[in-house]
Input
Amino acid sequence: MNLFHTYLVSHTPGKVSGDFGRWITVGNCLHKTTVLADTACLFTLLALPLDYSHYISLPTGMLSLACCTLYGIFWHFDPCRKYLVEYDAYRLSRLPLHTLTSSSRVVLVLKDDLHRKRRHNAIALAALVYYVKKIYELCAV
Output
């Protein structure tokens, strides 16, 4: 593994470096929340009786929709979405961070997100089909 091609060290002055790391962390959190909420929505179909499943699936669907909307507006086209903030002490110890003069730095890892996007789109599409079906059933009654 070539460390210099997969890692990026941001050593911008002071507050900017922390803000940069927080921006990436919030975007990744929104993405994970969307996927987990969609998965919970679909899992309730298997785990709960059909009469009660919409009490959990529809609120998690709304949470997923809100997170997906925020992610789509603010992070979808941002190049930062392909980076993760590195917190692992072992991996950080292998990098030549001692050569940097700045004390405030954020270490970013470039991740290939092709599989993540495919998995997210498949789960979101399945959940969307369920949402539309369930809302149609609730409105038809």
Notes: The CA atoms of residues 41 and 57 lie 4 Å apart. DSSP finds five helices and three strands in the chain. The longest strand covers residues 106-110. The helical segments are 3-6, 15-47, 50-74, 89-93, 114-140.
